[in-house]
Amino acid sequence: MDLETLKLSLGAVAALLVLSFAGARLIRFLRWVETSEIARQQAEAAERGKAARAAAPAPAPAAPRVEAPGVPAHHVAAIAAAVAACGYRVVHIADAGAGHAWAAEGRWLHQTSHHTH
C-alpha cells in the first residue's frame, strides 16, 4: 500500500465520519422541531378550549315539553308491542292506499317495452 492510497482511505473514513455526525445532528434537530411543534399545537388547542369555555353562553332554561309533529309516542309503543308479540316477523308496514301507482306504472313500462311485430 502506498502513501497515496493511504491518504485516500483516510479521507474516505473522515468523510464518512463527518457525514454520520452531520446526519445524527440533522436527526436530532428534526426531532427537536417536531416536539416543539407538537407542544405549540397543544398550547394552541388549550388556549382555544379556554376561549371556547369562556365564550360559551349560559345554558338556556328548559322549555316546556311540546309534542313533536309526526307519529305520536303511544303509536310507536303500540307498534313496538305488536312487533314483540309477533316474534320480530313483521313483513310490511305501510299506508293501505300507497304503492298502487308505482306498481301500475312499473307494469305499464314493462308491457310497453316489448315491440309487437
Describe the 3D structure.
This is Oxaloacetate decarboxylase, gamma chain. It is a single chain. The chain is mainly alpha-helical and 117 residues long. The protein has helices at 3-55, 73-86, 100-112. The protein starts with a helix and ends in a 5-residue tail after the last helix. The mean pLDDT is 82.
β-strand number: 0
Structural class: mainly alpha
Which oligomeric state applies?
A: single chain
- Element pattern in H and E: HHH
Average pLDDT: 82
- Helix run count: 3
Main sheet attributes: strand count, strand direction, barrel closure: none
- Helix fraction bin: 55-70%
Overall geometry comes to: elongated
The low-pLDDT segments are none
Radius of gyration from the alpha-carbon trace, in angstroms: 39 Å
The fraction of residues assigned to DSSP E strands is: under 5%
Protein name: Oxaloacetate decarboxylase, gamma chain
What attributes characterize this protein structure?
117 residues, mainly alpha, elongated, Oxaloacetate decarboxylase, gamma chain
Ordered list of secondary-structure elements with their pairings:
Blueprint: H1 3-55, H2 73-86, H3 100-112
Gist?
The chain is an all-alpha fold and 117 residues long.
